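Supplementary Note 3. Input sequence used for the single-chain structure prediction.
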Amino acid sequence: MIATIPIFRGEPNVSLTTVWTIPNGHRVVAKTLVLSNFSGAAKTFSLKVIPQGASDSAEWYVLENYSVPSGNPSILELQLAIEGGDRIQIAGQAGVRCYLSGIETDI
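The predicted structure, written as discrete structure tokens, is reproduced below.
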């Protein structure tokens, strides 16, 4: 089955936090990341995908301290394949809001 899903929506923690571990037997393609910041000054956002069984390391950053300008939302189109057992981690400074969506499939 293929379904479009919200992976995360809301205000991320300031420190990297696992928001989802992909279930074994599934694959997710992260498609769209919408970041907003209405705090008045630029803020940062980070996204990391850690493969199943891998140690946490800087090499797994997809976005590290990405600058989110104040004002209009930033929309990033992704084609990020994430396998079962992989962990998605995000972090953002106070004032950043995030909506990450994708497609989940059984494999």
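The chain has a mean pLDDT of 95. Residues 2-106 form a domain with the Jelly Rolls fold (CATH 2.60.120.220).
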